[in-house]
Structures are given as C-alpha cells and as structure tokens.
Amino acid sequence: MPALLEIENLQVEFDTWDGRVRVLDGVSLSVDAGQTLGIVGESGCGKSMTALAIMGLVPRPAGHITGGSIRFRGEDLLKVPEARLRELRGDRIAMIFQEPMTSLNPVFTVGDQIAETARLHLGLSAADARKRAIEMLKAVHIPSAERRVDEYPHQFSGGMRQRVMIAMALACEPEVLIADEPTTALDVTVQAQIFDLLQELRDTRGTAIVLITHDMGAIAEMADRVVVMYAGRKVEEGSVEAILGQPSHPYTRGLLACRPQLQLGRAKRKALQEIPGVVPPLHLLGRGCAFADRCPQMMPRCKEAYPPETQAGASHVASCWLLPPPGEAA
Amino acid sequence: MSEPLLEVDNLQVHFPLRRHSMFAAPQTVRAVDGVSFSVARGRTFGIVGESGSGKTTTALAVMRLIELTAGEIRLAGQPFSTLQGEALRSARHKVQMIFQDPYSSLNPRMRAGAIVREPMQRMNVGSEDERRERGRALFEQVGLRPDQMDLFPHQFSGGQRQRIGIARALATKPELVVCDEPVSALDVAIQAQILNLLGALQKQVGLTYLFISHDLGVVQYLCDEVAVMYLGQVVEYSTREALFEDPLHPYTWALLSAVPRIGNRRKGAAGRIRLEGDPPSPINPPPGCRFSARCPFAEARCRTEAPALREVRPGQRVACHLVREDGSTPHRPAAL
C-alpha cells in the first residue's frame, strides 16, 4: 500500500543572479498516518523548501519544480490543476509556519481566521464556523475560548498565537500536518506544551506530522522516522533509533555532537565538537559530496562524485562514500 | 574561590507605565526586583529564565545601560552603580558586552576593522598605530583573517559576524564580558564554534563572563554558577553541579523537564512537570511566591507569603517554602 504522502525524486530550481540554482536535488521521503517524520538540517539545506513544495507554494516566478512527484493518496500534486490543489491545501494537508507573530493577519480576530478555513473547505455557515473555531481553540487548550475567539492576534502571547496557528491548521482535520520549526520563537516550557499537543493529535486523530527542525533533541522526542538534509539533498534517512543510535553520515554525527545537550544528574563536561565552516552557496556545488569540505573524514573520492544512496541498516539509508557501496557488501 | 569581580546587591529595575487616565492608579513593571549575586574572577556566571524573567534587564543594568531603581553594583570591590559622567566613562572599558543578534549589532556602514577599533578610539586607548595592531591581533584571536578587516558586515556569515562582535568586546581589554544570548541567533552547527571560542578566550585572557541564556544545555556547558530567574527574581542559585544534579525549585524542575533531550523518547508526560499557560505579567505582581499561580505544588502560604532566597546546602540557595531545612524536597518528580 502506498504511503499517505510520498515524495519521489523532487527537484526544485531557482533563477538567481548567479544563474539557475538547484535548491532541492532528488529528495524522496514518505509519511504515513499516525506517524511523525522529522526533517533536520541547518538553514539553507532545503527543509522549508520541501514543505513549500508539498503545499504548492514554491515562490514563483523564480522557483521551478523541474522533476519528481509528490503523491498524496496516490494523486500527484504536481500534476493536478490549481483548483484541486486549493481544495486539498488547508483541508487535507495543512501547514504551521515558523513565525506565529507574522503569519496571522493582525486586522482579523483569531476566530474569523480559524472560521475562514472551515467556511471555505467544510461549507459551514458563519454561525457554525464560529462554533467550530471555538471548538478548535478548546482543542488546543486555550482557556476561556468563547471569549478569546473574538480577540485579535496582538492580544495573544507567542505560545498562544502558535496554538491559534495550530487550531487554524486543524480546523478541517487534515490528514497531513506540516510543522515548520513550530517552536523556534518560543520558550522551552511553551515548546513542551506545543509538542504535547502535536503528540496528542497524532495519537488521537491519526494525523501524519512532518516536523521540520534544526534541533536533534526535538527529533529525539517527537519523530518516528528522520530525514537529514544537507545542501538540498537527503543525506541520511532512518528510524529515530537508527539515526540517534547509529548515525552513518558524518553530517548527522556532527549535528548530534555540536549542541550542548542537557544532562541531568552527575555529568562530566564533554568537549563540544564543532562542524567547521558553513553550508556552501548552492551555486558553487561541485560534482562531489557537498559536505566534503566540512567533513572530518573526507577522502579524495568525495570530491569526485556524489555518493550513491546506500543501505546502512534495516530501512536506514545514507549517501556517503564511507559506507560500503551496494554489491561490495562489507 | 577567588575574590568576586562583580557583586550585585538587591538590584531593582522598575519601569513606570503610562497611565490610561489621570484617575488610574500608577502602574509599575517590576522587571528586576531584588536580585543579588556575585561572580568570581575568571569564572562564568549564568542567568537562565524564560522571556520576561528579567535576565536581559539585569545584564543591561550591570552594563549601566539602563537606570537602576535601587541596589548596588560593585566591580572589583569598587562601586560601579554610583559612578557618573567622566568617572563612569573611564570605568566602562572594564565591562563590555556581546549581543544576541550579530545582524543588527554591527554598523552596516563601517568596515569590520573599524568596528573592532571603535571602542578603543572612544576610550582613547593607545595610539592610532597601536589600535590598528591590536585590531589585527584581535581578528586572529577570534579566528578571522586580518585581511578581512577591510570588509563590511554583510560580507560575513552569521558566525563570523558574532566573531567580530566578540573581537569588539575584547578590544578594551575588559575584565567582565556580559554575553546576552550570544549563540541563540546562530545556526546549530555554528553555535559550537562560538561556544568553544568563548571558552578558549576565557582560558587565554582570564575573562569573567556574565552569561545570559534561555538554553539550559548551553548554560550547563559553559557556566560555573547559575541563577534561575522567574518574573524578576532569583528562585534558585547554585553551582552548576548542584543545579543539574539536585535541582530544588519547582520552576527549575519545569524548565529542566521541558528541554527535549536525546536519549529521552517521549513516553507521555509521566514524571514530568508541565506548566500551564504563560508567566503572569510583571506589572504589580501578586503577593506571595510569584511562581505560585503556575506551581503544581503551591500551598496556601505560597500565595500570601513571599519565600526568601535561603541557603539550604553549601553553594545551593533556593526561594521556595516547600524545600525543607535539610534541603529535601517532597514533590520532586522521579524523572529528574
């Protein structure tokens, strides 16, 4: 049975002053109902672009999807007419954006904004849509929802606004929820509340969640499967246990070691491993592995050709020359 | 323990609010309300807390960038909070600051070298040639190439800009460097580069850091002593070891249990402290413990009587009625 949402070999290019740049190169991933897929990587790795491509929101005219497919329940979203996409977007597939401060319209009440989705997609009357909005605010645990439904975004704190965003995304009970760094602007205790809420949705409604983050801690807590992206490509994919326990790509290992992880109890201070340098500009990528210049285990062949996707374990793949290539089993 | 370099005594910073009408009662934001701590020379003192806890206001007060409502700040035993005019100006070279946002804290119209030299010019340190030479040395010290001194800020990456900010902070050979969330605006992979640089510089130059952060992992990595702030007050004040091994305050538990950790797969909220809602407003805060409204263990007395910060064990202070005299805590969740 095909997965609920399946991306295959997605290619996205952008026209820039430096010529045409490939921002996504052969990205494949899938997510099933009741599952959380984590996408992790630094800024500029293509995480958000992947999300925008799923939503059909790749900026035009600069951006072009030049290849691949995005299938939702078998239907290729890249081939369907815009009207069909509008039907699905916000209804079956919804997205929570990174900035709760700027993604809400300041001149409409939060109730109106949640109700709009319900009116458009579910065909509810204004009164029913308002009821639905109150119901959704309650579902995301906003106290005194009946009163707050008529308030404006500026009357909500950052955490509350993010909940409003989630309420809006959930108004039509989507099957796929894409959360693009939903907690980066929030305090840790509020982040924990939002994560609890997402977890609850996944478990009670079977919503498939695509969680985009740069924080391996968040991945550890939330994700079932993990896709690690670097410079527009998927460099490693596996179950969360495999990615955290036996990371196969040096970039994944770097991401795991470069952040001071909170340790409770008696803990020794461990030296922090840095990943030297920065993500290379995409128009300067050569033939080889894009991570080669920052990689502590770089070999001559890394500069010559891009490593093929190689099995690193049961349903665990990575693109790195350190792995024995297929056919030459180790 | 060496002598304290920075001593902060009962610091208060209040901001009056504009009244809505002439009959309304005057309102005050008590951003920092009675904070005391001391930082030993050559050590790193961390202040953690969520937004609105008053940690940045404390830092700005230590820098003398905002007016103190009450309290005293001493630097190497000398009064610092009472200095005015020329005396303050000449004492300022001893305290410098690294800012959170490397994009907005560098003048886009100045070349990187000039940015680093500016504090020396302002404080008349050395001759023009000496300043140029020191700028070059600083660039190398923070891991930039001296030929990059002629570039403008937009030609640098985020991590490199933060290195320029660090070089600028070190230009006047300060004793105390206040770091206000120096890595939170940077990409994950770059954070380690800057944290390691701060650690190396401390060893080389013998710097003392006042380190403001909301990231407990970073604080555990870098700090020797830590104060946890909530709504303008210190609720727990411990050595690093004690804070992470044996945290005492329910708010500290909540902070610690909220941090996502590798090797800690979510198995529901069991054994964790989950806070509901957001911190209350620091405008005319309620009597009693300021955390009592969100504290899952609050008792009647917590809502009426403010707990004092008291030492329950050597190097461990806490402001909570529920912690017993011997430092035992009846409610502490097993997961911590």
Tags for this model:
heterodimer; A: alpha/beta; Rossmann fold; 8-stranded mixed sheet; 4-stranded antiparallel sheet; B: 336 residues; alpha/beta; 9 helices; 12 strands; 22% strand
Radius of gyration of chain B: 21 Å
Poorly predicted tracts of residues of chain A: none
Strand content of chain B: 15-25%
What is the mean predicted local confidence, pLDDT of chain B? 90
Largest interface: A-B, 48 and 45 residues
Major sheet strand order of chain A: 6-7-8-3-9-10-12-11
- What count of helical segments of chain B does DSSP give? 9
- Which strand-content bin applies to the residues of chain A? 15-25%
Helix content of chain A: 25-40%
Shape of chain A: globular
**Name of the CATH first level of the domain at 1-32 and 41-80 and 219-259 and 272-330 in chain A:** Alpha Beta
Mind summarizing the main beta sheet of chain A?
A: 8 strands, mixed
Oligomeric assembly: heterodimer
Which of globular, elongated, flat, extended, rod-shaped describes the shape of chain B?
globular
Note the main sheet of chain B.
8 strands, mixed
Q: Helix fraction of chain B?
A: 25-40%
Question: Which strand order spans the largest sheet of chain B, edge to edge or round the barrel?
Answer: 6-7-8-3-9-10-12-11
The CATH architecture classification of the domain at 1-32 and 41-80 and 219-259 and 272-330 in chain A is 3-Layer(aba) Sandwich
SSE sequence of chain B, one letter per element? EEEHEEHEHHHEHEHEEHHEE
Q: Can you tell me about this structure?
A:
The complex is a heterodimer of chains A (330) and B (336). Chain A has 330 residues and is α/β, with parallel strands linked by helices. Chain A has a domain at 1-32 and 41-80 and 219-259 and 272-330: Rossmann fold, CATH 3.40.50.300. Helices cover 31% and strands 24% of the residues of chain A. Chain A has an eight-stranded mixed sheet, with helices on both faces. Chain A has a four-stranded antiparallel sheet with strand order 2-1-4-5, covered by helices on one side. The longest helix of chain A is centred in the middle third of the chain and has 18 residues, at 188-205. Chain A starts with a strand and ends in an 11-residue tail after the last strand. Chain B is α/β, with parallel strands linked by helices and 336 residues long. Chain B has a domain at 246-262 and 269-336. Chain B is 28% helix and 22% strand. Chain B contains nine helices and twelve strands. In chain B, the strands form two sheets. Chain B has an eight-stranded mixed sheet with strand order 6-7-8-3-9-10-12-11, sandwiched between helices. In chain B, a hairpin with a 2-residue loop joins strand 9 (225-230) and strand 10. The longest helix of chain B has 18 residues, at 188-205. Chain B is globular. The model of chain B has no long low-confidence stretch (mean pLDDT 90). Chains A and B meet through helix 6, helix 7, helix 8 and helix 10 of A and helix 6, helix 7, helix 8 and helix 9 of B.
